[in-house]
Amino acid sequence: APDPISLPVDDLPAAMAALRRHTASRLLAIAAGDLTGRLDMPAVGRALADAADEAAAAALRAVARRAGDPLPFAAVAVGKWGGRELNYASDIDVLFVYGVPDDSDPAAAGEQAQRLAAAFLDCLGRRTADGIAYRVDADLRPEGRSGPLARTVDSYRAYWERWARPWEMQAMIKARPAAGDPELGRAFLDAAAPFVYPETLAPDALREARAMKARAEEAAARRGDEIKRGVGGIRDVEFAVQLLQLVHGRADPSLRRAHTLEALRALGTAGYVSPDDAGALEDAYRWLRDVEHRLQLAELRRTHRIPTDAAGRDRLAKALGYRDGPGAAARDRFDADLVARRAQVRAAHERLFYRPLLEAFAASPAAGLTTAVAARQLAAFGFQDAAGAKRAFEELTAGLSRRSRLMRQLLPLMLGWLSASPDPDLGLEQLRRLVAESPDHASLTAALRDNPAAAERLCTLLGTGRLLGALLDRLPLALARLSDDAARTAFPGREALIAEAGRHIAVRPRWEDAVAGLHRFVRSHLWWLASRDILGTADVAVIGAHLADLADAAVAGALDAARRRAAVPEEALSLAVVAMGRWGGRELNYASDLDALVVYAPGEDLAADQAAAQRVAAHLLEALGPGGPLGPAFALDLALRPEGKQGPAARSLDAYAAYWERWADTWEIQALLRARPAAGDPGLGARFLSAAHTRVHRPGFGPDEERAVRHMKARIERERLPSTEDPRFHTKLGRGGLADVEWAVQLLQLRHGHEVPAARVPGTGAALAALEAAGLLDPSHAAALRAAYAFCSRVRNRLFLQEGRARDSLPADPAAVTRLARSLGYEGTPRAALREEYRRITRRSRRAFETVFYAP
User: How confident is the model at residue 844 (pLDDT cuts 50, 70, 90)?
Assistant: First the structure.
């Protein structure tokens, strides 16, 4: 145990001065032992922690004398102090715990404990003429700076049971009593153990920890070349060791060590890490910590930055024992070792986490993890189907082929990427299938090896949803494009897509071949759009517009093929396809139908032209109907035509105009708000739109029409929402969802379109902006409706990508909602966070809808 420091009893300023002088003397003695080689790196860390223990014990004794009656109180060291692996400039992280004597008032004891903790922090951390003793950080306590400095053991336990995040319990791996009441400190550790090492690890515990680690690395990269948090740095080793402690320490108490190197050795001894890997990582860790110590001794401050100038790197290299030699300066030798050590450490995740899993599930397993232990490790990293993983490993790596050899090298790395995806089991299964079905195994695995950034992105996509695997048929080409940032973020414009679709039709004279080629064209571009969506290079509005452009191109190509099959060339009959609904508004979701109307301009032979138009429309539906590239989704639907499915599939413009004047219900006129010419004769499409606007945006939209709109909306809410669906979480028809936004906007368009030309636009978003700009929609209501439209569209899109089929509501299965939430970027408690944000956004939207839609 550290020797106690003798401080003046009744003079706190004098005690603080003596404490600072003693601490400086201890640090000087430790540095001397370090620089002369008498103390190695672990001994330096222990000595620095012992010095901090001495100071903490002395400070607590000094302030306790002035705090009144004795109170059970302990300072618990966490972080590097708790692990007894301090560096020269470390903060000392602390938690305070107190007890309430039997004859004491709990409130009074709590107030005394807060005063005692604050006085302790002040005693060690206040800057005086003698400097500070230590920077003390109590921010790891429950609720951080907002929480009380000290708590009882029961209060900590209550917090851990209800509120603690996984990273908070990860920090407790290194907790140990450092000063004060030792029995109370041990009680604190006993209470914490079941939460640090629970029987069942929370599904998102490691995922959340890894996400925090990734953010720390990004921040370190912005700060410059850093030995601690940067790639391949000190934290990489510590983090890897702690994750394995969290995974296996629940079943194996021998791993519950606070000191990083002791824990690493225990992992090696118990067989969770190979002895060679444990030794190599220990060697790298010792070297990196030596670099850290020399940096801090040279600058006498807290720093982890490697000098960027040659002179600074030379000084650091020589302080570490490097010398100039033939062909290489000391700094060059140091730089070479730095690169090698970082590479050695960065590979820790593969060596420690995933390669042992392959070996454990191998047909002839070598010594190492047992199958049961490997399954536990797989589960901790998100793979719940150990049997499926075993089958995938065997199929991907069995044999002596070049593909198998490459996959044995690649799979540990790819498992790490898959484990970070929303559904690791699905991702691994889809990877297995894609590799197995690839006609050229060798080029595929070589492409994976040569494009690591693309391979990582591919793992994210495959682990997000079934549709991404189903749509992907040319994997090497996809990898090449995923590795190209420019290609990954670009998408062809509308005219380029239409030209490409036309080429697919022109080179395939047989109807069946033309349709199949068109479907491949759609599926290929849908895959790229979905990739952009999931990888975050396009927002939901951009995706909706691109989907509409792709639909325009697909219908244009299908129209070419349909004309050819019906023997109705363009010069024989003018014909146009008018997009309606979300397609017309260029706000498509993946699951949207392609609502449309077909219009033609007859010549002198009305009967023949009518028959020809019906043949073309029938073939158009055949090419892009429910049997199209995405099944029922992305399928052409002509049900909005006059008389619905009972009416002819195509009508002349005069027939449409006559129907609107004589027979159309208000909802049919309302539907024309989103009409947009999409394919065929652009002149005819423009005339159709002009006639539609003339009918829709005429003065005199009055109370009867408004009542009809409201009646239809109420009927839809009552009849079309399935009784099995929860209306709170139905993206399309639920309260505050897509339909609420669209109907509110469209009622305003019907009411004011005749006097506000800017509102005569087919897109809901564009109409919202125009109505707000015209002063017809309160900005707060516009913001609420806009947020809900984007949010619900994004959720609906991701549901489709996840399940590979149209779905409008959140799944009932909690695990499926969790996967959805992860894919949308929610962390911590993703399912709860998604549902809470869903409620918040749609409640605001519903209030805005009711105000707008039912206002007189």
Answer: very high
Distance CA 476, CA 192 (A): 50
The structure tokens 């067989």 sit at 271
Per-residue pLDDT band at 543 (split at 50, 70, 90): very high
CATH number at residue 543: 3.30.460.10
Confidence of residue 38 (pLDDT cuts 50, 70, 90): very high
**CA-based nearest residue to 579, from 529, 622, 624, 629:** 624
Q: What is the pLDDT of residue 476?
A: 64
Residue of 745 and 357 predicted with greater confidence: 745
Instruction: Give per-residue pLDDT as tens, 139-155.
Output: 999 999 999 999 999 99
Other CB atoms within 10 A of residue 790 CB: 18
**Which residues constitute the domain of residue 227?**
200-346
Token pair for 722? 């399935």
Question: Do 561 and 686 have their domain in common?
Answer: yes
CA distances from 17 to 55, 132, 159, 178 (A): 12, 9, 37, 22
Only one residue has tokens 């697919």, namely: 504
Of all residues in the chain, what percent carry a pLDDT higher than 90? Answer: 62
Phi-psi region of 399 (alpha: psi -120 to 50; beta: other; left: phi over 0): left
Contact 386, 378 (CB under 8 A): yes
Does residue 205 sit in the same domain as residue 190?
no
Does the structure show a pLDDT above 70 at 369? no
- Average of per-residue pLDDT values in the chain: 89
Among residues 312, 346, 380, which one ends one of the domains? 346
pTM: 0.80
CATH number of 718's domain? 1.20.120.330
209 and 184 within one domain? no
Same structural domain, 154 and 25 = yes
Q: Which residues pair with 600 in a beta bridge?
A: 575, 652
| Residue 674 and residue 549 share a domain | yes
Residues 6+ apart with CB under 8 A from 321: none
Pairing of strands 636-637, 650-652: unpaired
Given 141, 161, 196, which residue is the final one in a domain?
196
Within-domain flag for 484: no
Q: How far apart are CA 615 and CA 391, in angstroms?
A: 51
Rg over CA atoms, the chain: 34
| 363 pLDDT higher than 50 | no
Residue 439, token pair as written in the block: 């006609």
- Counting the structural domains of the chain, the total is 5
* Tokens describing residue 374: 């490997």
